[in-house]
Amino acid sequence: MGKIRKTYDIHFKKKVVYLHLNDGMGYHTIAREMNIDKNQVRRGVNYFQAEGIKGLEEKRGKAKGGTGMGRPRICPEDPESKIKRLNAENEMLKKFLNM
């Protein structure tokens, strides 16, 4: 079974980032005090420096594109060709079952 990931709220993340940027604490020291991995501290600081407060918001579980996701249809099948295709499938299945 996989590891359960812990999610931290934005206030906790801001505190971690400000400890590094304002107080000058190192990644290892902050990680030890806050009981998190040093890579989480580094990642949080990098996200904050790149995107600001938005970088600290939770990104998992949010769709990037919006509505209409998935493979788009090139053109909808007209009724006549659909009937023709379904009849051909039925004939093929009848031949297969009669073998």
Automatic annotation (TrEMBL):
The record's section on Pfam families has:
HTH_29
The organism's place on the tree of life at top rank: Bacteria
Could you identify this protein by its name? Answer: Helix-turn-helix domain-containing protein
